[in-house]
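Hello,

Our lab assistant flagged a job as stuck in the queue for most of the afternoon. It eventually completed. Since we weren't sure the result was trustworthy after the delay, we are filing this so someone can double-check. Below is the sequence as submitted and the structure that was eventually returned. Let us know if re-running is recommended.
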Amino acid sequence: MKLILSFALTLFIFFNSSSQINLHDSTVQVIGYWNNHEKQSYVVTHEKIKLNETDTLSTEYFKYTVDVTIVDSTQNSYTIDWYYHDYELQTDNPIMEKILSITEDMTIKIKTNEMGAFKEIVNWKEIRDCIYKATGMLKQESLSIPNMYKLIGQIENMYFSKETIEASAINEIQQFYSYHGGKYKLNEEINAGMKVMNQYGGEPFDTDVTVWLDEINETDNTSVLRMYQSVDPNQLTKATYHYLVFLAENLKIPGPKWEDIPPLSNEAWTASRIHGSGWPIYSVETRNVSAEGIVNTEETVIEIQ
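-- returned structure --
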């Protein structure tokens, strides 16, 4: 559900090849000043917790290392490789180990604009074909595992097209570049509405977004930026209902009734400390999806090595 703020930040972009921190007017520009073949490695951790009020229903934790390398630099863009490796997993769900193995040692090639704002995934067809080949093998290996076909189908839907990959399969990359391309003033909020892709395949969701510069640290040449996102709950609930009906029809089982679907909410908080070079030092995003006392919390942390 994460997308960069290109919808509004064009109002605040002022390219400047000098330092990104301006103490005279308390502003920060987030721009990628990257050299060709420059590389940084990051540890990415994901933790998912399902709660029913104060009771923990399930937990899931995994981490991996990603090498982020500038492979091409032009006047108008950067081409960047994200290489994923060294996965570690802690979960009570044995199926997850098989699923995560699909993306081990994968390289995702993306392109940004000259400021480092995410533009597109470049090798999406290669990634799609790799994922579908792996899921095909998993289907054959997992004929006796309940719900495995359903889980594999959900993965394949995420990698079905360039749009679905960018919307739902590269969330940590979207998080990484969330603030690039913008100019921000200390403690001044930027409020905007945006459209984000509906992962269920319907109309995009309306989403309210607030972004602000929370801290400037001249000594270490870093700044802290924060973002809050909230998806329209009515649109989210309707989309979830239609998707569950679609699944039921394909599985040839009784579908849900509209009155049985509780109102849903989807909120996210993102905070990133970013160096003046444009490399994030640390970023954390916490997303809560809740309904009738059940809260699914997912936290993604990106930390430079």
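-- support follow-up --
The delay was a queue issue, not a problem with the job. The result is valid. Helices lie at 6-9, 95-100, 124-141, 148-158, 162-169, 171-176, 233-251. The domain at 6-304 is CATH 2.30.230 (Lipovitellin-phosvitin complex; beta-sheet shell regions).
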